[in-house]
Every structure is written in C-alpha cells, then in structure tokens.
Model the fold of this input.
Amino acid sequence: MLFSELGLSAELLRAIDKQGYQEATPIQQQAIPLILEGHDLLAGAQTGTGKTAGFTLPLLQRLQNSAPQGNKCVRALILVPTRELAAQVAESVDNYGRYLPFTSSVIFGGVSINPQITKLRRGVDIVIATPGRLLDHMERCTIRLDGVETLVLDEADRMLDMGFIRDIRKVLNAIPKDRQNLLFSATFSKDIKQLANELLNAPMEIQVARQNTTLEQISQVVYPVDRSRKRELLSHMIGEGNWQQVLVFTRTKHLANRLSQQLERDGITSAAIHGNKSQGARTRALADFKKGGVRVLVATDIAARGLDIEQLPHVVNFELPNVAEDYIHRIGRTGRAGLEGEAISLVCVDEKKLLADIEKLQRCSIEKIILPGYEPDESIKAEPIKNGGNRNSGRNSRPNNRGRNNSSQSRNGRGRNASAPAGRGRGQGQRSRRAA
Done:
C-alpha cells in the first residue's frame, strides 16, 4: 500500500517523498488509519519494521488538524526508555514534520539541562523524552503538560524492564485524562497487558508479527566455545570474514571496555558504548561506527533499542543476555527494513540455560556450529553468571521492586546512571536516578 492511500496530508506526503519512501510497511498500513481516527492503540511490531513512522506521521497530522489549546503547551508527549531512541524518534519527527509549523524538543539526561529549559520556555508542540529527565523538568516547573493531546509510549516493555513504571505513573497524573494514548512495544508481556489496561481506553490492538519472534530475514547461529576463547574466536571471525561493521553485545560495562581494548590490540578498530560513557562519547562512538571509522561497536543492552544503523550486516552476542527478550532486541539491530542480517552468539557452558530460555521464547532451536580449532573443552564446568550491567535473571528479581539494573543500584542504592547532571536540592542518589 502506498502512503498516498493512507489519507495523509500533502505536507506529510511531501516529507515522505523527501525521505525516499513510497510504500508503507505493514505496521504503518495498520496503525496510521486507526490513529487518524482517534483510537487508542496497543501495537506490537518487531524492531526495524517502521513503527516510529507508524505513530509519528498520524500524530503530526492530528496536530495539523486541531487547534492548540493554549500558548507554550506541549501537545504531544512521546516517552522512550533510552537516550539513543529519543534521538532517533526526534529525528523522525523533524524529518516528517519539516513542512509543518510545529516545534519539537528532545530531552534526556547525561547532558546539560539548561539548553532544554531555554527551548521549552519558548514553547514546543512535541516533546520526546526519557522519563527520568522529564520528571526533572516537571519538578523544576520548566515544562507544561496540561495541554497534552496525545501520549505515546514507545518500547514500553523496555521501560517497564528498566523500572520506569513509577515515573510513568507520575507523568500520567500530570497530563489531561482526555487524550489519545498509543502504546508501542516489540514484545507483549503480562506487565504490558496490565499497563495497557490501566492506560488505554477501548484500544484497538494490532500485531504484525507472531509474538516474541525475530524477523525471518535474520539468520541465527550459535558457536559453542570456551569462555576464555571467546575474544580469540571473535577476532578470528571478524578477520576471516572481513567484516567491516559489527555490533557486539556484552552484559557488563567493564567487559565492553575491556573487549574493545583487546580488539584494538588485535588490530581491529573498536569503540565501546554504555551507560557510564558521557552522552558526547556515546554520540561520537555511534557516529564513527555508522561512517566506518571503527569496525566494531561493543555495547551493553543500553544500545539494544534505539540504534538505527542502516544495513548493519552483523550482530554478535559475545555474552547472552540474562533476559531472553533482550536477545530479540539485540539482534533486531540487523535485518532492518527488509534487508538480510546475521546474528551470531558465542556461547560457553555457563550460558546453556540462557540459550534454552531464548529458544523457548522463539519456539525454535538455533543452529549450532562448532568451528574447528575452537571446540569447547567438555571437562570445563559451568560457573554462575555474575549479574552486571543487565537485569537479574528474571523480571521478578528487581531490587526494591524498582527494576534498576545492578550497576546503577550499586551507586548509593539508586539511580540509572551516575553521569546525570546534578538536580536542584537533591542528594547524589537522587541525582543519579534521573540520568536516562
């Protein structure tokens, strides 16, 4: 189906054409008409299927069709879990709204709050925000939410996993009850269904792929290998295959740094991206990776969502995630927009249960290949997996029921990221909690 058949305005069609698109993806075909009709929506779609445009385009048109309720009021609020995803959604809003008179602002932690305050005071129509930094603005009274007409929760399952539910409820209490609600999620869980019941009013529900499955164009392979030889095997595969762009996932920030340094010593240009990096460093590393300045980007799960890398051919799980659903989001960085991709997992004896959980979630087994010269030593016994930059082994094991990851919890028992700028009148533990 062509975008021109979806009832979008001439300004939006012109912007879509500028981006080089003509045909809508399945999620766009289903979501756009329902949102334009004013329905609340619960939408499930695998990452890379175009769901951002699926809510951005009709949101812009509904703003275009209605008069603002007041001066300097935010009319549309889009909540996302990570800085990278916030930047990606903001870029989409800018691209598709280029011929419309609306202003937008993206707000997240890890950068100075003052430029954000200045822009908000001028008045913006659309705000894309992470929950922590949005609450900072609410506490400072630097943002008005009493005019919100549309609320979007993007990657809602990830926000719940990261422990944002209390923050989300605070936001819900601050915005008008008479509004349109759009909830987008790559996976549907019981928690998501519960949130949908609380948030949505007689919602329409769409899902363009079977629940909790990966895209068919992603080939998945597991290479069993001893834990001590993973780095050696990874370097071998990158060199042997002449891979020029590889996204590698680790569980912890420490290992991400160490692996990046080891790859550099192997002659493979590399950079690390994780929550302890400043926003500037994260942005530079991603930009270098996209333009080919580095061959390997080593990331923790902070990068599993929100990274939009065109034609990324390879994703490697150097370590399997502790939560099976995160595997889907990790490998969803490849195989985007209908292109083929390869997802490789280096699995040691410690990770057999994690692999079984992933296969159970996908309802299929993943091909195992033992590479000659890297056969695992069957005499090595499994060791407990230490929790690091990921969640514990299940969603129900959140410390203090707040769902923060362990690396953040270790700082004064709270906080998402210690790199957040200091907030007014808060102690260090409270400051770190706002960094998303």
